[in-house]
Specification:
Helix 1 packs antiparallel against helix 2 (45-61) and helix 1 (11-37) runs antiparallel to helix 3 (82-103). The chain has three helices and two strands, in the order H-H-H-E-E. The chain has a two-stranded antiparallel sheet. The chain is mainly alpha-helical and 150 residues long. Helices cover 44% and strands 4% of the residues.
């Protein structure tokens, strides 16, 4: 699958990303504990379904990313072990980090007002969104002489 270099996530994608990242982190903690107790313990269908509810939307979000080809859902046919799930989740965590590096960047605007500001590059606010704008001028007072009524 050819990846689209011009693709940007939407603001809604970023909201979903934040939620799913936190949910995946919580699942990782649980499976780390389970894996330490019983690494070869098999998952039941309910756990598979719960994990896949987080992995599937992440997989869709990452469909334009190079990591997409390496992201698997948990198979319901081949019952995985706790350690299998830890490995799969770690691949998603790496994809999450790469996604953030790619789309959450220092804003390139030259205004001193925005120096060192990191923001999400999205469809609504692409990397060149602030180019040509003088954000500071919004905050300058009007220099025109205005008459004050008596």
């Amino acid at each position: 699958m050819k990846k689209d270099d011009n693709w940007l996530p939407s603001e809604k994608d970023i909201e979903n990303y934040q939620l799913l990242k936190d949910m995946l982190q919580a699942q990782r903690q649980e499976f780390d504990l389970l894996s330490k107790k019983k690494a070869d313990g098999q998952l039941n269908p309910m756990k598979i379904k719960m994990v896949n509810r987080v992995l599937e939307p992440l997989n869709k979000l990452f469909k334009h990313e190079p990591s997409h080809d390496f992201l698997d859902k948990i198979s319901e046919d081949e019952i995985p072990t706790n350690s299998d799930v830890v490995l799969i989740i770690s691949q998603y965590e790496t994809a999450i980090e790469e996604f953030k590096k790619k789309y959450h960047r220092k804003d390139g605007h030259k205004s001193s007002y925005l120096n060192n500001v990191y923001r999400w590059m999205t469809k609504e606010y692409p990397p060149d969104f602030y180019e040509g704008e003088d954000v500071e001028s919004e905050y300058e007072e009007d220099d025109e002489d205005t008459e004050i009524p008596e």
